[in-house]
Design a protein that fits this description.
CATH superfamily of the domain at 140-338 and 537-563: Dimethylsulfoxide Reductase, domain 2
Strand order of the largest sheet: 5-4-17-16-15-6-7
CATH class of the domain at 140-338 and 537-563: Alpha Beta
CATH architecture of the domain at 140-338 and 537-563: 3-Layer(aba) Sandwich
Largest sheet: 7 strands, mixed
CATH topology of the domain at 140-338 and 537-563: Dimethylsulfoxide Reductase, domain 2
Keywords: Iron, Iron-sulfur, Metal-binding, Molybdenum, Oxidoreductase
Organism: Shewanella ulleungensis
Strand content: 15-25%
Oligomer: single chain
Low-confidence stretches: none
Shape: globular
Radius of gyration: 25 Å
Pfam family, one: Molydop_binding
Bound molecules: ligand MGD, iron/sulfur cluster, molybdenum atom
Domain 4Fe-4S Mo/W bis-MGD-type: 4-60
Cofactor: Mo-bis(molybdopterin guanine dinucleotide)
Mean pLDDT: 97
Length: 704
């Protein structure tokens, strides 16, 4: 055996970018802990990081391509797999048109340097407009707001958590999720630091979450009513004459229109709807205005709902008019070393609504259609019908709304391919599964999360372990399919491009290139480089045609009558009297980390939280099995009775349901849980952006 060595890298599981110190000997991991010298995470890591070892050693993980045959799955060579796939794709596209082939991209793509870089040319080589991804089951409203207000979908304001004096968290549970659209390793430490410097943290959530538990104040809100709360908070700013644009006073268009709009939404008017006392709303506003700096941070609770678009727009409006935009302690733009907006010209024409989905007419944006439309696009006959699909690092059968219906749609496809490391609930419908390398076998650089980070830092990690000779990385798989789709000769320059080549070029051409930023510099600094706190940079970063923020884009004006209609609605459907919302668990990440024994062990975490008064009314006892029914499905799940969930609301974890025949995640199957997305309804979307509306799914519950 050789000596024990140390390797430094960023964890690639969630958005927090924690630096890790990994001790290893030969091909074996000895220990994983937080890297004290990482300038950003400073030694922090969560329990999931240790599972990087489990993913690496997992016996269920696929390492070679497999093909579905009449006698079961069989290993085939890479060359045979590529030949068959490309033949089928080409044949289907010749028969039914280019768009008959669709692509679904899942969350791990955003955490992989190679995938992030090679998916673009991959899509181009397929020539289809039918791309779908988990973004429309997640953060699409953030991008749409950025697109219309600041001129670029990737120009997302980030909460300056390290310097703010007041943080209003709407529909986020960063103590568990470690932050999202706000990369901040050790969120819990950063939130506590706000309190230590005399500031305040307030959480608005239908559930008393772990974040709410450490906050100074928790306010229960009715699901999907956040837009009204935000309108009332903005109303208060105008009513008290407290609009203060600071250095942006000549940089904001539409202020008067906002003033007129919010006139009708006083705290007293919205109070019964949102379920928050008018006095509490007024105090929230007063506290926010009194703080030296403040920021409103809205996340999944605000974005995956029927008014996600409006919520994320109003969140930006609130930060801007209270003088907390592009300023320390407010919402700010990062300046990443790999700048995704390097070639984005101001006034660039938006792709929003460039096309509409064939069946439901939901908008295309940022190169894709909403995932909520995928099943109907496969199952509705006619010109443009999807006949074939490739999924890349995604598990929509468990993650997309009405996932069980999507499973039926997948079984009707002419041909399906998955690039994935498991035979799971989605990939079991594929004809061929191509497994790439993962985690510690890959090099790592966070292209996306540096763009949403609360501090400007930069770090590159080489692979810890060499891949086996017969393994390919995801990016090599993508590149090979592209090359074969385009019949590229072996000496084509494309064939020689690597993620590292592109990364080095981007770093050199990026904002710190003149100061010597390069891949070599990052290799020489394995703990990462601190560039510093976020700086005001709106005037350099903004991409609107006139260089101003558009406070009231027409798309939102046009969407407001839909919100107003809810205000006038008095009755709700008695058939489904409860609102179902999702929750995240500390020891699982979406649908795919449940095959790690150390993460899954212990008692079943996939339970339905029911308020104690509701439980009494329905005769439900602690631990009892209940039947939950929605308009589209039914599940059975164990009840946990608690007052942490609001009356009339129930919650269960997302990402579970590994109980299906024909999958190979054997450890996950020992604690399968049930899938929340057998209940969520693909018909429920935010009509403006097309984002899935998971929150507030109407359900009925009864003792099973
Ligand atoms: N009801 C409800 N539904 C939700 C949510 C919710 O809160 N509530 N959350 C939504 C959100 S925020 C998201 S991001 C989506 C996630 O939706 P998805 O991205 O569809 O789901 P994941 O579980 O991330 O799927 C990851 C897939 O990639 C595979 N994989 C893991 N690592 C690698 C790798 O390195 N390479 C390759 N090729 N494959 C890999 C895994 O085996 C798995 O099949 O779910 C959404 N769904
Ligand atoms: N441990 C762990 N960490 C993760 C993940 C994971 O699966 N596990 N997933 C990662 C991913 S892909 C993402 S996108 C992020 C998500 O990060 P977060 O958004 O922080 O995570 P969620 O737990 O989905 O938080 C949503 C909160 O909104 C609340 N909520 C539900 N409906 C409403 C509503 O209508 N209004 C309001 N105000 N609140 C509502 C829920 O109770 C919940 O507390 O987490 C990431 N980090
Ligand atoms: S918080 Fe996220 S990035 Fe940090 S160790 Fe945990 S899973 Fe990895
Ligand atoms: Mo996500």
């Amino acid at each position: 055996m050789s000596e024990i060595k140390t390797h430094y890298r960023n964890c690639n599981i969630c958005e927090a970018m924690c630096g890790l110190e990994i001790n290893y000997q030969d091909q074996q991991i000895i220990s994983i802990k937080g890297d004290q010298l990482d300038p950003f995470s400073q030694g922090y890591n969560c329990p999931k990081a240790l599972a990087l070892e489990d993913f690496y050693t997992d016996k269920d993980r696929l390492k070679t391509p497999i093909k579905r045959t009449e006698s079961g799955w069989q290993a085939i060579s890479w060359d045979d797999a590529f030949t068959e796939i490309v033949e089928n794709f080409k044949h289907i596209q010749q028969q039914h048109g280019k768009n008959a082939l669709a692509v679904y991209l899942g969350n791990p793509n955003a955490h992989s340097l190679g995938n992030a870089l090679f998916l673009k040319p991959f899509m181009k080589s397929l020539g289809t407009i039918n791309r779908f991804s988990s973004a429309s089951a997640d953060q699409l409203p953030h991008h749409v707001a950025a697109n219309f207000m600041f001129g670029a979908g990737m120009l997302i304001p980030v909460s300056d958590i390290d310097r703010t004096d007041f943080m209003l968290i709407i529909g986020g549970n960063p103590v568990v999720s470690n932050g999202s659209m706000m990369t901040a390793p050790n969120v819990i430490g950063r939130l506590k630091a706000i309190q230590k410097r005399g500031g305040k943290v307030v959480v608005v959530d239908p559930r008393k979450t772990r974040t709410a538990n450490i906050a100074d104040q928790h306010v229960f809100i009715r699901p999907e009513k956040d837009a009204f709360l935000l309108l009332a908070l903005i109303h208060c700013v105008f009513a008290h004459n407290k609009v203060n644009l600071r250095h942006l006073s000549d940089k904001v268009d539409g202020l008067d229109e906002i003033r007129k709009l919010v006139n009708a939404y006083s705290p007293e008017i919205v109070a019964p709807l949102v379920g928050i006392d008018a006095k509490v709303i007024r105090t929230l506003s007063t506290d926010m205005l009194a703080a030296d700096s403040a920021v409103c941070y809205s996340r999944m609770g605000a974005s995956t709902q029927t008014f996600g678009g409006i919520c994320l727009w109003l969140t930006n409006v609130l930060n801007i008019i209270t003088g907390n935009f592009d300023r320390a302690g407010g919402a700010m733009f990062p300046q990443p070393a790999f700048d995704l907006l390097r070639n984005h010209k101001p006034g660039h024409k938006t792709s929003f609504g460039q096309y509409h989905s064939r069946v439901r007419k939901l908008p295309f944006f940022n190169g894709e259609f909403p995932v909520a439309t995928l099943a109907e696009e496969i199952q509705t006959p006619g010109e443009g019908q999807i006949k074939s699909l490739i999924t890349v690092a995604g598990n929509p059968v468990l993650s997309a709304p009405s996932g069980h219906k999507l499973a039926n749609a997948f079984s009707e496809l002419d041909y399906m391919v998955s690039i994935d490391i498991y035979l799971n609930e989605t990939t079991k419908y594929a004809d061929i599964i191509l497994p790439g390398t993962t985690g510690v076998e890959n090099s790592h650089f966070d292209i996306f999360f540096n763009s949403f980070s609360v501090r400007n830092t930069v770090k590159y990690s080489p692979p810890l372990f060499e891949k086996q000779t017969d393994q390919l990385s995801d990016w090599q798989i993508l590149k090979e399919i592209s090359a074969r789709m385009l019949n590229l000769p072996a000496d084509d320059p494309m064939q020689h491009v690597t993620p590292e080549l592109i990364l080095d070029m981007e770093l050199k051409k990026g904002p710190y290139g003149q100061q010597g930023m390069s891949l070599q510099k990052l290799i020489d600094n394995p703990h990462g480089i601190d560039i510093g706190p976020l700086l005001p940079c709106l005037s350099e970063r903004i991409k609107t045609t006139n260089g101003n923020i558009d406070l009231f884009p027409t798309v939102y004006q046009d969407d407001l009558p839909r919100l107003q209609a809810v205000m006038n609605q008095t009755k709700r459907d008695n058939q489904f009297p409860f609102d179902l919302i999702s929750r995240r668990l500390v020891k699982s990440h979406n649908t795919w980390t449940q095959n790690s024994e150390r993460l899954i062990k212990g008692k079943n975490p996939c339970t339905l939280e029911v308020n104690s008064l509701d439980a009494i009314n329905l005769g439900i006892e602690q631990g009892q099995l209940v039947t939950v029914t929605s308009a589209v499905g039914e599940i059975k799940i164990e009840a946990t009775i608690t007052d942490d969930i609001q009356q009339g609301v129930v919650t269960m974890p997302q990402g579970w349901g590994h109980n299906q025949q024909g999958t190979n995640m054997s450890i996950a199957a020992t604690q399968p849980g049930v899938s929340i997305n057998d209940l969520t309804d693909a018909a429920r979307v935010d009509m403006l952006t097309g984002n899935a509306a998971f929150n507030g799914t109407p359900v009925a519950i009864k003792v099973a």
